[in-house]
Every structure is written in structure tokens, then in C-alpha cells.
Amino acid sequence: MKPVQKIRAFILATLLVSGALFFSGCGKGDSILPKSEHEKLFDNLTSPLGNKQWFLKAIYENGVLQPLTDAQKRYYKTYTRTQTPFTATFLDDDGNRGEAYLLSVIQLKEVITNSPLGAATRDYVVKELTEKTLDIQVTSPPGTPAKVVREVYYAN
Predict the structure, then answer these.
(1) What is the pTM of this model?
(2) d(CA 57, CA 7)
(3) d(C-alpha 156, C-alpha 144), whole Å
(4) What CATH number does domain 37-154 carry, 2.40.128, 3.40.50, 1.10.3470, 3.30.310?
(5) CB 128 within 8 A of CB 109
(6) Among 23, 40, 64, 148, which has the highest number of CB atoms less than 10 A from its own CB?
(7) C-alpha torsion 104→109→110→113, nearest 10
(8) Which pLDDT belongs to residue 28?
């Protein structure tokens, strides 16, 4: 066999083997399962890439829209996903830090871990959580005057 024929045979064999390997890897072997609603909402909260910053848009107290102060107009929260499913770290504009848990499609729990008085918990009801909107509501704890506070945030 001439050297040119050997090179052509080698190239042809390489292409055939490469093609076979490529197409065998693209078969119907492992299929990707669609994400659950819970997983989609967690992606919306933190972003699939890692973290997301949310900016306060509106506050309602007992259903009444409250005017935002200048500080509230700049207020933000950042949620950063961790390796634990449905768990994120969070930081807000008030300096609070801690863990956030998306317990279900309607429950978000924040545990503030840097409070001087010890860990503090905020339990929210998730009213809406999309890629651009976070609408959460918290009720005042027992033993305090009844108040329902709804916080609406937007993401860029």
C-alpha cells in the first residue's frame, strides 16, 4: 500500500470510529427528567447560576399599600444556592445573614444567624415566585399585635 493510501485509510477509519462513538453517545440511554415545580421555584429564587439579588418594590401591611422610604427603595436581599437541595444563604440590606430554606412551593423560611440576640426565624408564605417577581407574606408572631406584612420584590 502506498503512503497516500495508508493516510486515506487511516483518516477514513478514524472518521468511522469517531462517528460511531459520537452517535452511540447520543442514543436514548439516560434521559433528563423534567424539573419539579419546587426545583423551578428554587431556580427562580437563587438563579440556576448561583445567586440572585431581589429589590423591594412594595410593602403591604394588613392589605394596605405602604409608601416606601428612601432606604426601603434601595433595600435588597440576595439568595445564593448551596450544595444542599432547596437551601440558600441570604444577605439583606439591613446586614442580616443566614440560611433560607424553600420548604415547599408556598413556604420560605429564613433563619438569621448573625443576630446579637441569637438565631431569629422568619416564616414566609410564598404568594408568587417567578424569574422576576418574589411576593412573600409574613404574619406577626403570637403574643404581638396582629399584622400581616406582604413584601413584593423584583429582580433585574
Answers:
(1) 0.77
(2) 67
(3) 35
(4) 2.40.128
(5) no
(6) 40
(7) -110
(8) 59
